[in-house]
Recover the amino acids of this structure.
């Protein structure tokens, strides 16, 4: 699986957009970019995934660069409940999901 | 939709006893479930892949005789920690694949095991 690099932590003001970057320069053609998050002491939650096109759902938007070497998860209007560890995972379909260290996003009032 | 229920949420047991954790997919069938373990301030570590009707596949370094996994139906997988010791105290989380060809997983809320 392609290795990903994420900042250890980020802060965001409540109501503002949170932009979480992820570098995955060794991604291969059949690998997807998945984002999950884990709120403290809970199980992880799926957010969004994409292959090469930008994606949007009710939770977030995923922007993947044209060369696919990096991506950004956007939470358009962060709330206090969005404080969590966000994991960017690059993986082919039907492979086992493994988690790195992720980014701790803290949304401040 | 796509809810995974995990039970118990927390359990305290004495050293040497066995503990069973259940993972149920409530509104979908899961041919494949995954068991993870998470120590404090660390990331999730995949322990094993549970396949309905067949033996589980364990990750390197995970003792299959200590962590018994049974996936007898399309909606239930169980993890039994046998002869638990204090070092087995951890947060155990199961997940299920919603559709076969994706990595969109639904996770349970986790089970916190404390071994005294």
């Amino acid at each position: 699986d392609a290795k990903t690099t994420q900042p250890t932590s980020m802060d965001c003001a409540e109501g503002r957009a949170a932009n979480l970057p992820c570098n995955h320069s060794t991604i291969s053609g059949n690998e997807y970019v998945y984002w999950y998050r884990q709120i403290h002491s809970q199980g992880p939650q799926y957010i969004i995934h994409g292959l090469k096109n930008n994606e949007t759902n009710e939770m977030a938007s995923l922007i993947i660069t044209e060369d696919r070497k990096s991506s950004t998860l956007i939470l358009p209007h962060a709330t206090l409940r969005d404080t969590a560890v966000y994991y960017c995972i690059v993986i082919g379909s039907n492979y086992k999901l493994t988690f790195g260290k992720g980014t701790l996003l803290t949304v401040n009032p | 939709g796509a809810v995974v229920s995990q039970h118990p949420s927390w359990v305290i047991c004495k050293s040497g006893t066995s503990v069973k954790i259940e993972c149920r997919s409530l509104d979908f069938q899961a041919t494949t479930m995954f068991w993870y373990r998470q120590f404090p301030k660390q990331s999730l570590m995949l322990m094993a892949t549970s396949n309905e009707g067949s033996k589980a596949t364990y990750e390197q370094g995970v003792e299959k005789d200590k962590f018994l996994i049974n996936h007898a139906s399309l909606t239930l997988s169980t993890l039994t920690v046998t002869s638990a010791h204090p070092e087995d105290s951890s947060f155990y989380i199961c997940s299920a694949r919603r559709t076969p060809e994706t990595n969109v997983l639904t996770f349970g809320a986790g089970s916190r095991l404390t071994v005294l």
Observations:
- Chain A is about 0% helix and 50% strand.
- Residues 1 and 96 of chain A are 10 Å apart (CA to CA).
